[in-house]
Amino acid sequence: MRIRVVFGLKNKGACVPFHHQHLLYELLMRLLPPTYNLHTYSFSGLKGQTQTTQRGLHFYSSKVTWVISSVSKTFLKQLVTAIFQQKEICIGELLLKPEYIEKEILPELGSKTQFLCISPIVLANPNKNSFYAKHFVAPTTSLFSDLIYEATLSRMEASRLYSAEEIKDFSKFQIVPDNEYLERIKNNDKKFARIYTLQESGIRYEIRGYTFPFTLYAHPKVQNFVLACGLGSYTYKGYGMLDLADHSQTQRFILPHWEMIDEELELIKVNGKSEM
After folding, report:
1. Which of 43, 90, 210, 248 has its CA 20 to 30 A from that of 130?
2. What pTM was estimated for this model as a whole?
3. Whose CA is closest to 240, among 140, 66, 115?
4. Is residue 34 predicted with pLDDT exceeding 80?
5. How many CB atoms sit inside 10 A of residue 16's CB?
6. Domain 2-106+250-269: which CATH number of 3.90.1150.10, 3.30.70.1890, 3.40.50.300, 3.40.50.2300
7. % of the chain exceeding 90 in pLDDT
8. Would you say the CATH fold of 112-249 matches that of 2-106+250-269?
9. What mean pLDDT value characterizes the chain?
10. Do 238 and 43 form a contact (C-beta atoms < 8 A)?
11. DSSP conformation letters of 216-272
């Protein structure tokens, strides 16, 4: 399930760092108890009308959007409830007021899917593979696919959503980048792979993130997992969130004041209060 939290921006022109995923992760940790499986959700950076300066991204739109996805409806339910209990949320310099949420209806995927990157893909956890976590790997190589496969499969196993027999069926996995896009980026002297920094357990790491469109050949359950929970490593910190290249497959609608979001018919009120 995927939702878009829409905030009103109270101080137009305010700024956040270019890559502000760590601020959003810190917000998640403040709002939710530390009991969730870190491998079952993903989220984007903040979206809106922005201008770039040396300080970062300055937001000038009246609305700011945050996309959050998870295979757990309970996770989204508790997160939305916690967000709308806040009169105001501060992210960087932005003063945001929660206004409403949109729900996206995503299709069931087959064995071939064209994806876009909403946030950078990280190949490896530096605790497990410090070299390839930072070293550039060409997306056209089999090594790139192999590293992403290893990171994604380990997360699928850790999610405890799949049996050992199912995991064995997930061996087919190949990423084919959009070479026309990569060539265009190269000709325009732009980058699709950059170094980012993150902190974990008090240690600062440098990691490389990749952002480009690609086609994934994999088992349908793998396709649906990465669309909901992200691709690669550090998805729980806001890396590796994907979107479908063909947006016609996605339906989006604003939730009413009361919305049933799980099978037990528990209700969320999105105007600032919740009721169980």
Report:
1. 43
2. 0.85
3. 115
4. no
5. 21
6. 3.30.70.1890
7. 63
8. yes
9. 86
10. yes
11. EEE-HHHHHHHHHH-SSB-GGGT-S-EEES-GGG-EEEE--SEEE-STT--EEETTS
For residues 244 and 118, what is the distance between their CA atoms, to the nearest angstrom? Answer: 10
Indicate the residue type of 46: L
Using alpha carbons, select from 271, 205, 194, 209 the residue that is nearest to residue 240. 209
Cα atoms in the Cβ-side hemisphere of radius 13 Å centred on 79: 27
Q: What is the pLDDT of residues 211-269, one digit of tens each?
A: 999 999 999 999 999 999 999 999 999 999 999 998 665 556 566 543 444 433 333 33
Task: Give the angle subtended at the CA of 233 by the CAs of 102 and 125, to the nearest 5°.
Answer: 150
Measured between its terminal Cα atoms, the distance across the chain in Å is 20
Q: Where are the domains of the chain?
A: 2-106+250-269, 112-249
| Residue of 246, 172, 156, 175 lying closest to 216 (CA atoms) | 175
Backbone angles phi, psi at 220, to 5 degrees: -55, -35
Q: Which residue has the tokens 């169980």?
A: 276
In the 8-state DSSP scheme, what is residue 213? Answer: -
What CATH code would you report for 112-249? Answer: 3.30.70.1900
Encoded tokens for 218: 């994999």
Single-letter amino acid code for the residue at 181: Y
Give tens-digit pLDDT for 110-153.
999 999 999 999 999 888 888 999 999 999 999 999 999 999 99
Whether 45 contacts 123, CB under 8 Å: no
